């Protein structure tokens, strides 16, 4: 790019965005240029803050070099163009070092156009590496101290909470001189604060055949929010929350909340509390409501009564793979509205904001406990499992009453040292404590007859916020070397004793073999009147959701690593899959053999058809996402896909 066209680009940079503050831009020839509101004229579509054809026309008039890097997909106007851009089998997304990888100056232009929102990746742990230019012992100590807090990772442009998938590169450490590499981190991220930047980033990635990823908080358990050599769109800072006291759609009339893509569970709950309503989100405060959670289905402490997170959506504002900004609702872009409620994040476009239902305040009653078995307790393992089975037997009955039983079961140590069972919590929206106690009494009578020792701690609150802040565990994330898998078991498994017992014994055997188990007793059926959606059909008749997983020690051999990974996907899951093909795409196994059925159920074919329509060239890709089967990350083991390699096309 010439100096002249660079000046134009700079001029344009100011033109696109009313710059909030003067920014210093260093160009690669060493010249430093400053731009601010008064040096440039705003040229963004003033009413909407969007990239439009009129804006592109103005840019073209400026004779900006390489303007075609930022233009919309012309596929809908000219099919030959889209055919030309389609990648064929064997071809890959352009990767750093490739001849076609954008030059530094091209990246600078993207930075300018986005108003300085482009961030070149520095892995979060780089402050801990003395050989790295950003080494800072104090920041490193702080990072190590706060590593397991989700805010540490959600507030970083590229850090993810399952470091396994970025290759566990550049992990924070107590200072040694080994090198910190990018691994599976994206090369660049656009810190999105408006629609315009998201449109530019998508157009740029599509037009240059770059891998595109979307990161909101980085909670994803399957590595879907990172990717080597990618441009990432970081949605975390889209924080608007607006309360709408009366919102009407063909199927709904009532209060609603319009939330930006970056709003997190704790922020949604606090806002709902402030406005005197109840909103649906996950159990941990840091999860991104409008990002992966809702688009992936989303289970909630209220799911037994109100359905999935995706059942709450009334409207979605989305930037599509072709760069266009659209609204999807019951009356507009209805296929997209169906698909993006449960059909998965990072597949059909980038959510900018969504409008969700808000309910009146309600009462909550429930309990917590910590129960142990083992030689140092009064509970033998045999009684522990009998008591657990007595609880399991009642799952359909409890689920039918809107229950949410959220508990964890862990082996306490080596075989023979017993088990620990924490209930965190078991609660029912809309119940009084007296009703709750009456409901659990028959189970406790059975337990007392077994001689099972337990101490329930009851609670009752007249609103969700107090219940959630006081009885849910604090979030702890970013464990290394951890893999998860999950299953959804349908009510029908409970219909005959033999199936129910065999199913329970299978789960028990996996825990006895060393798996942790996070189990939920709930039935997230869609409440009457909810429009149909692409959410996993296996959720709808489930009365049990279980997350299994295992961790391994640092530095184990490749053979041992393979063994533990194969054990999760096959030894354990093959056994459990017999009792239910369903799993949860947000809390599942990235190696799930038939992920289409497991994560999407009967909705997969329609989801795939919509994916092919809105994203024919796969601008969006994530492991196990709808349509992901025709691409593969290079250099992976067949028992574990990380995001550390180049993304290449493997089939049509
Ligand atoms: C500690 C913890 C607690 C959890 N609790 C629950 C729970 O109670 N209920 C539940 O259902 N799940 C829960 N989950 C799982 C959670 O729903 C998923 O990890 C979910 O994907 C998080 O979404 P995110 O946007 O915060 O995360 P990210 O990792 O940033 O994104 C997840 C996926 O969504 C995509 N995405 C993000 N933002 C957008 C956007 N704006 N537009 C399009 N795609 C986007 C990403 O590309 C990625 O594929 C939990 C996970 C953890 C780690
Ligand atoms: C904007 O930039 C111009 C040129 O560099 C400078 O003279 C002016 O003071 C700046 N204005 C603000 C508000 O920073
Ligand atoms: C295009 O540029 C002209 C002249 O600078 C300006 O008046 C107009 O508002 C611009 N239009 C858009 C959509 O940016
Ligand atoms: C291309 O199609 C879009 C709608 O899909 C339309 O808004 C736009 O004006 C068209 N552009 C051209 C150059 O025809
Ligand atoms: C140095 O860092 C590497 C990479 O994180 C790690 O594997 C190794 O254990 C560290 N060594 C020491 C002595 O901390
Ligand atoms: C076992 O039960 C006895 C009698 O109820 C009680 O005193 C003791 O504290 C219990 N032990 C444990 C470890 O709970
Ligand atoms: C199933 O179990 C119930 C309760 O334990 C029992 O009453 C019933 O007879 C059993 N049915 C069969 C077919 O074993």
Automatic annotation (TrEMBL):
Record domain FAD-binding PCMH-type: where: 182-361
Protein name: FAD-binding domain-containing protein
Pfam families: BBE (PF08031), FAD_binding_4 (PF01565)
Signal sequence annotation: 1-22
Molecular function terms from GO: FAD binding; oxidoreductase activity
Keyword annotations of the record: Oxidoreductase, Signal
UniProt entry tagged with the keyword Phosphoprotein: no
Family to which the UniProt record says this protein belongs: Belongs to the oxygen-dependent FAD-linked oxidoreductase family.
